[in-house]
């Protein structure tokens, strides 16, 4: 490959990584501070564990991975270094961040499925400590799997396993999970409608509470689905380029494919940019907490926001 062409490509892809560094690190850092300070005391619930881990992984992607990619690409553009390749430290760190994010979102989808379809089991068995352990195992597993690149394993075999483990399996699992959620919520809505018509003369307080619970379940299922959707959107372009490179012998070594693949690397980190915006605007408690952290609102003005999730959606809540 021509050195001038490689330098131009390094510079062209290095600048977006500088922008991603800022766009990912700043909002995720603010949200993580909001989780830590917890001004409204609403993030002590089970589901918030997933949001905290996803935010922490996104922050790792922004501060460590994007900064490393930017530095290496500028060294390539203005020095004697080459583009980061699979097996380099910065690539390994990138795989840790991306793979952890994918598996965390997959686990969150299964969590939402259990909370909606088996609410009593979820209420009794699923606790924040168990989810912390589960998410920690996911991050450790992703780190070990990404580190296999440093052992000298064939990169073709590694990428084949990676595609099925972090693309095929998550898509199949989350598709089944959200299909089950959709069927369960549709069935529950029909049962609740019949129950309300029978008990129309009873106290309206219970009906309002059940309606609020159903609305919150739908909202959080939709939020986690949107997070999953952006993960898939960010993954598909890069893995299409990888599949083309693996199966098209004529295309290998062509400049257009090399440019396409390196450009699509940037797409892998777009979900880390979208996640903080998506969760903040869809979850009112988080939005108000961020405003308190940024001193845009006083804590006393939003103390009446309420619980982060309804009791039947949380493993550690107390049933009323």
UniProtKB/TrEMBL annotation:
Coiled coil start-end: none
Residue ranges occupied by any G-protein coupled receptors family 1 profile domain in the UniProt entry: 27-279
Keyword Transport tagged: no
Keywords: Cell membrane, G-protein coupled receptor, Glycoprotein, Membrane, Receptor, Transducer, Transmembrane, Transmembrane helix
Extent of the signal sequence: none
CDD domains in alphabetical order: 7tm_classA_rhodopsin-like (cd00637)
Lipid bilayer topology: Multi-pass membrane protein
GO cellular component, one term: plasma membrane
Spans traversing the lipid bilayer: 15-36, 48-72, 131-161, 167-185, 220-244, 264-281
Pfam families reported for this sequence: 7tm_1
Protein location: Cell membrane
Example of a GO MF term: G protein-coupled receptor activity
Source taxon at top rank: Eukaryota
Chief place of localization: membrane
Family of the protein in this entry: Belongs to the G-protein coupled receptor 1 family.
Protein name: G-protein coupled receptors family 1 profile domain-containing protein
The organism of origin for this protein: Desmophyllum pertusum
């Amino acid at each position: 490959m021509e050195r001038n062409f490689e330098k131009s490509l390094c510079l062209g892809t290095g600048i977006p990584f500088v922008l991603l560094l800022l766009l990912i690190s700043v909002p995720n850092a603010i949200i993580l501070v909001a989780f830590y300070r917890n001004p409204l005391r609403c993030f002590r619930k089970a589901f918030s564990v997933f949001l905290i881990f996803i935010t922490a992984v996104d922050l790792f992607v922004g501060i460590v991975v994007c900064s490393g990619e930017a530095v290496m690409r500028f060294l390539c553009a203005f020095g004697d270094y080459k583009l980061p390749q699979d097996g380099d430290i910065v690539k390994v760190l990138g795989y840790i961040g991306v793979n952890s994010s994918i598996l965390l979102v997959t686990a969150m989808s299964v969590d939402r499925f259990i909370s909606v379809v088996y609410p009593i089991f979820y209420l009794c068995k699923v606790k924040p400590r168990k989810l912390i352990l589960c998410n920690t195992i996911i991050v450790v597993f992703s780190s070990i799997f990404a580190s296999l690149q440093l052992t000298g394993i064939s990169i073709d075999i590694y990428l084949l396993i990676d595609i099925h483990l972090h693309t095929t399996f998550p898509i199949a699992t989350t598709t089944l999970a959200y299909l089950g959620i959709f069927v369960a919520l549709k069935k529950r809505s029909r049962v609740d409608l019949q129950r309300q018509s029978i008990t129309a003369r009873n106290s309206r307080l219970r009906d309002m509470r059940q309606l609020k619970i159903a609305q919150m379940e739908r909202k959080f299922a939709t939020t986690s689905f949107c997070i999953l959707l952006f993960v898939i959107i960010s993954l598909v372009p890069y893995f299409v380029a990888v599949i083309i490179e693996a199966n098209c012998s004529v295309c290998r070594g062509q400049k257009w494919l090399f440019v396409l693949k390196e450009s699509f690397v940037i797409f892998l980190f777009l979900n880390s940019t979208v996640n903080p915006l998506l969760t903040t605007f869809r979850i009112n408690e988080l939005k108000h907490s961020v405003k308190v952290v940024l001193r845009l609102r006083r804590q006393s003005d939003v103390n009446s926001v309420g619980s982060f999730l309804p009791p039947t959606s949380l493993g550690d809540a107390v049933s009323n």
